Amino acid sequence: KSHRSRVALISFVTGFSFLTIHSFITFYAGRPLNTLRTRRPRGSRGSDDL
């Protein structure tokens, strides 16, 4: 019984942490990525990357 509850707790914590990290990455890292994306093509080096 204790083993099953432990597994359930671990899976719950893992899923919760995964969701939190995912939302944090999309919210925090999403903005810099968008700014870099829109900034790159405008630069003179945009043709070099392609």
TrEMBL record:
Q: Where are the transmembrane segments?
A: 7-29
Superkingdom assignment: Eukaryota
> Does Transmembrane helix appear among the keywords?
yes
Keywords of this entry: Membrane, Transmembrane, Transmembrane helix
Q: What is this protein called?
A: Uncharacterized protein
From what organism does this protein derive? Stegodyphus mimosarum
